[in-house]
Structures are given as structure tokens and as C-alpha cells.
Amino acid sequence: MPVAIVTGSESGIGEATAVTLARAGFDIGITWYADERAARGNAGKVVAEGRRAEVRRIDLRRPQEAAGVVDELAEALGGVDVLVNNAATNEPAPFLELDYETWRNTLTVDLDGAFLCAQRAARRMVAQGRGGRIVNVTSVHEHVPLRGASAYCAAKGGLGLLTKVMALELAEHGITVNAVAPGEIATPMTGAEDVDPRTIERNTIPLGRPGDANEVAAVIAFLASPEAAYVTGSSLVVDGGLLLMAAIANQERSG
User: Fold this and answer.
1) Is the pLDDT assigned to residue 188 strictly greater than 90?
2) Among 3.40.50.2300, 3.40.50.720, 3.30.1330.10, 3.40.50.12780, what is the CATH number of 3-254?
């Protein structure tokens, strides 16, 4: 059976992705950093879908050790066909006040960790000889800046270009590599855990609300599916039209 490993799958987009991929027929490697109970609860949801689940702790502040967890999960589940690099951190601070330790921690978790986990998974996919899928969860801030988030933007921008280089180099092995770039999603990271995003009004987003983690998971699942076999090196933005607001602002200024 195909195997998917999803980092940061104890909550939010990672949790939704693990369950969605289980419904699509994947056995799932679940990783957690802070909440083992939640991760094991999510493993139960995977098992309820008739799939196998393995749970491991991953600490991307120690990226080389974290990459070893990818190998552990692959060994336990019998390989790896899909890797979803979802785990991330963001510690906002104005550029002039951002200390190096915070800068380095963000890049270590969001970029170094994703690089090493993807490299371990890709090496296994090449050895298996049946291709594979790697999906890097970035952010709309892979594409546009955000005040007070220089480290986060640098990491996500870097991961976006890394995605394209990986896509170029791994295509010959039948491995596709894509990014999914969410906008505001109702998750613990945005302070909207367990809130129906359809009840939240956002006049800064054309669709008028934040996104649901399941809406991002559905895009990730598409990229992991046979139907997406000809998609590689892309960044699929899932933001309710947020990036389009620049055009509206420009129109208002010029109008």
C-alpha cells in the first residue's frame, strides 16, 4: 500500500492532510512536536479509515535528527511514496528588532528541516524505483512580503525556490515536487482553532473569510494523486484571492 509521511500532523493543515490522504488509500506516518496526545488521536482517525499509522516525535530545531525520523517512519511503514513538508514555525518581529537566534531558529525549522526531510524521502523514492510525490507547504508569503515576518518570508521564499530546483532534478526519477501556498487558514497558528471559518468575516480577502484546513488538504491530496502526475515545480496558492488584493489596492490608488 502507498505510504505518505506528513510532518507537523498533530493539528491544523497537517492533521487534515493526514486524514485526507488516509481516505485516499495511504498509510500515514504522523509526526508531532508538542502534543503527542493529539498526534495519537489523529492516528486513530487514520486507522478508522482502514489504514495503518505510525507516530513519531520530530524536532526540526535539530534538522539532521528530524530527517532521521523520515527514515524511521519509512522503515516502519514499508517505504515512502509521498512526503508532505508541513511543519513550520513563525516568530514575528520587526526587522530592526529581530535577533539572530530567532532568525536562525525560523530558517532552521522552516527551511533546513524541510530540505533534509525532503532529501531523505527523495533518496528512498529513487531507491524504490517507483517515483513519488513531495509537497512543500509554504505560504502566500512565499510570493509576497509581510511586515514583521522577515525570517518567515525568507524561509518560505527559499522553500519555494528549493521546490523548483528539486522538481528539475528529481523529474528524471519520476518524482514530482510542488508547493502549496496557503493564505489565512483557521488553524492553531492563526489563533482560530476549532472555529468554522465561514463564520469569520474578512474584508481583506475576496472570498470574505479565512480558509479551512481541509481545503488546503484537498489540494495537497490532489498533488499526491495520479491525476497530478504532470504537475511539477508549481506553487498552488490557496488563499481565497488574498494575493489579488494588491490589484484592488492599485486600482483604488489610480482611480
Assistant:
1) no
2) 3.40.50.720
- Interior CA angle at 233 toward 230 and 237, to 5°? 100
Closest CA to 58 of 89, 82, 81, 80: 89
As given in the structure block, the three cell numbers for residue 210 are 479565512
User: What number of residues does the chain have?
Assistant: 255
- Which are the catalytic amino acids? 152
SS3 13: helix
N-to-C CA span, the chain: 57
- Report the side by side order of strands in the sheet with 235-238: 53-57, 27-32, 3-6, 82-85, 132-137, 175-182, 235-238
pTM of the model: 0.93
pLDDT at 213 over 90: yes
> What is the residue-wise DSSP string for 46-107?
HHHTT--EEEEE--TTSHHHHHHHHHHHHHHHT--SEEEE-------B-GGG--HHHHHHHH
User: Using one digit for the tens of pLDDT, what is the confidence trace for 101-155?
Assistant: 999 999 999 999 999 999 999 999 999 999 999 999 999 999 999 999 999 999 9
